[in-house]
Write a structure and sequence with these properties.
alpha/beta, 6-stranded mixed sheet, Arc Repressor Mutant, subunit A, 42% helix, 343 residues, 6-stranded parallel sheet, Rossmann fold
Length: 343
């Protein structure tokens, strides 16, 4: 008699073929006889593996036509015993969110696992590995990582419940939870204009592939006056931000003085810019930023604070709905308003 783990191994092989695109939506899986010969297992093992796939809603058996791959957009009905958080690095911004999310999850008796994405594999492969370990609930912070929409579709079809944090990913296969950037940029802009009616400058990253960077800049562009400035900082050089900001300061001052009001797209830029201005004796400049990064308080940097506790609750609620309202679930984008802190 064959070991019962054989049918689980076969199920995972078929999983991977669907994930890699070897089996397309609506396509028939190889007949039982072929699977049996290919993987050197009995027909009984093949039937057990297909029965598991059918139970999970991944395939359907059509009388007279065989077993067909069945993609779905519905949630995966399971439990929230384990939730994985996938991110490229445990940076201060995401670490704060993790802290709040873990606290909220523990209140609901869920275990949270943090997985740092390895540069040696794609995001798709990182997520699929979690699915292979029977982890169906994942929170994803992409930052500047790439993830193909078709991969999200296939992961959803295989039973992965997903919530993207700090990004809008236009797809019916996952929820998105992020800051209400319009409220944030508008709040900072109005504060600066009330305090410094003359021209102000918006300082943001040049990586407009990131939805949050692109959206914040777009909103500022709608609000800005003819003399307000929009300045880009090279994302590719952010690993040495202090030196980068010093270089930017010197190059800018060669052409004109700094505006009295300066809005930074995120807390990293805000802290770095404020430090440079203070080092050069320009403490009268008003600097504001989105995100309350470490050192912002000591630097008297006014910020629009992201409500991580509320965002953590929203993310958990999204996963809860994907599990408990699986058939009725539809993907949503949830914008969460923060609050302005003047210093």
């Amino acid at each position: 008699m064959e070991n019962d783990t054989l049918y689980l191994a076969l199920k995972n092989r078929i999983y991977e073929k669907i994930f890699r695109g070897d089996y397309q939506e609506g396509e028939n899986i190889s007949p039982e006889r072929v699977l049996s010969e290919t993987y050197n297992v009995s027909r009984v093992t093949v039937r057990k593996a297909l029965a598991l796939l059918e139970k999970d809603g991944i395939v359907e058996r059509v009388q007279g036509s065989g077993t067909r791959v069945k993609f779905r957009e519905a949630g995966y009905p399971g439990t929230l015993d384990i939730i994985a958080l996938l991110a490229p690095a445990q940076k201060p911004f995401f670490s704060t969110f993790i802290e709040h999310f873990q606290r909220n999850a523990e209140k609901n008796d869920s275990l949270v696992l943090f997985k740092q994405h390895s540069q040696e594999e794609t995001v798709e492969d990182s997520l699929f590995k979690l699915l292979q370990k029977n982890i169906h609930n994942v929170v994803i912070w992409l930052e500047d990582l790439k993830l193909e929409r078709e991969s999200v579709r296939r992961l959803r079809a295989l039973g992965m419940n997903m919530v993207f944090f700090d990004i809008i990913l236009p797809t019916p296969y996952a929820d998105c939870v992020l800051l209400d950037n319009r409220a944030a940029v508008t709040s900072l802009f109005n504060f600066l204009k009330a305090r410094e009616p003359a021209d102000i400058a918006y300082i943001g990253w040049d990586n407009l592939q990131l939805s949050s960077i692109r959206e914040r800049e777009s909103i500022f562009s709608e609000l800005r006056g003819p003399s307000d400035l929009l300045i880009h900082i090279p994302w590719a050089e952010k690993s040495n931000l202090a030196a980068l900001m010093e270089k930017f300061f010197k190059e800018f001052m060669e052409y004109r003085p700094f505006p009295a009001g300066l809005m930074c797209a995120d807390g990293e830029l805000g802290v770095a810019l404020k430090k440079v201005l203070l080092e050069h004796g320009l403490k009268e400049k008003t600097v504001v930023s989105i995100d309350d990064y470490p050192a912002a308080s000591d630097l008297a940097l006014s910020v629009y604070v992201q409500p991580f506790e509320q965002m953590a609750r929203e993310v958990y609620q999204c996963l809860l709905e994907q599990n408990r309202q699986a058939d009725q679930w539809r993907a949503s984008v949830r914008l969460v308003k923060g609050n302005f802190v003047e210093r």
